[in-house]
């Protein structure tokens, strides 16, 4: 029952109800070691851990860092990285295998996302919203979609 309630709450949320900068107040209260290397948080780089490589895309969530959100760049996705299977005997030198990704990580200071601070609310006609709406999934499941349609219909009648 709680799941249905929370899904309903998510569907009914309006842009003004979203906390776009959830960490803003907390960052000033964190110990220095927690915010050391803060620039690295906004570096668009691959994160490498042995055989695993995932690309970090902070340009898609700049508002979390208190920066103005623009339309993000296209994501280049390497399908080979998600086909790696370690169930069999794997004898690979991952440093050599993922050398290009490790080099990119090493140049992270040149790959920072730069944006001015976000001041006030983002206008509804902003380029980010025009990009975001067609590429996002608004609904958690089919019932949420039905609920939203019913909710929108109810608002039009009243």
From TrEMBL:
<protein>
    <recommendedName>
        <fullName>Aminotransferase-like plant mobile domain-containing protein</fullName>
    </recommendedName>
</protein>
<feature type="domain" description="Aminotransferase-like plant mobile">
    <location>
        <begin position="5"/>
        <end position="132"/>
    </location>
</feature>
<dbReference type="GO" id="GO:0010073">
    <property type="term" value="P:meristem maintenance"/>
</dbReference>
<dbReference type="InterPro" id="IPR019557">
    <property type="entry name" value="AminoTfrase-like_pln_mobile"/>
</dbReference>
<dbReference type="Pfam" id="PF10536">
    <property type="entry name" value="PMD"/>
</dbReference>
<dbReference type="InterPro" id="IPR044824">
    <property type="entry name" value="MAIN-like"/>
</dbReference>
């Amino acid at each position: 029952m709680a799941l249905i309630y929370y899904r309903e709450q998510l569907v009914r949320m309006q842009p003004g109800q979203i906390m776009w900068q959830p960490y803003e107040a907390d960052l000033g209260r964190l110990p220095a070691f927690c915010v050391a290397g803060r620039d690295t948080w906004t570096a668009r780089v691959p994160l490498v851990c042995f055989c695993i490589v995932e690309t970090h895309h902070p340009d898609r969530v700049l508002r979390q860092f208190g920066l103005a959100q623009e339309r993000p760049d296209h994501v280049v996705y390497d399908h080979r990285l998600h086909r790696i299977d370690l169930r069999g005997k794997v004898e690979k030198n991952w440093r050599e295998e993922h050398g290009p990704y490790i080099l990119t990580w090493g140049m992270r200071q040149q790959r920072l996302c730069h944006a001015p601070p976000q001041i006030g609310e983002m206008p509804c006609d902003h380029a980010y919203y025009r990009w975001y709406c067609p590429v996002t999934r608004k609904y958690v499941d089919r019932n949420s979609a039905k609920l939203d349609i019913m909710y929108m219909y109810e608002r039009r009648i009243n």
